[in-house]
Amino acid sequence: MGAREADRARRTLPPPGRRVVRALGIGFGAIAGFAVGLAALTTAEGLLVRERLVPTRLGALLARSGTFGDDRDGPPISLGVVGDSLAVGYGTEDLDSTPGVLLATGLSAASGRPVQLTNVAEVGAMSTALRARSRGCARWRRRMSWSSSSGRTT
Q: Considering its fold, how many domains does the chain have in total?
């Protein structure tokens, strides 16, 4: 076998170590390309979803408080609502459909007394912060209160 034939054999059939390195390079390149493509896709989806979820109706994001059943006799029942976007009523069509208002009007109708609703709920509130939020309403002690959380703890 001459030098020319040895050179041709080397070009057509690489040594086993070189084959392994080439295969690993191709494999890692494919994985890296897949990861970059997946990252670009999830980023694009996140931006599209964010456009849909950004609140456009600020009035629906404000927690509604007040007295319900003013026309009823008797001392008012105090109802406190602490929570996150669920307690605020995020996503409801109007402010009269929020959980706090529905509870207050139902309690007023069932008891025949007015209900003083204090809603300190906040969109994005964490369950770990509910205790601190409720401390601001110390007058709720020994009175009825309702707490809502969609389950986020961190």
A: 2
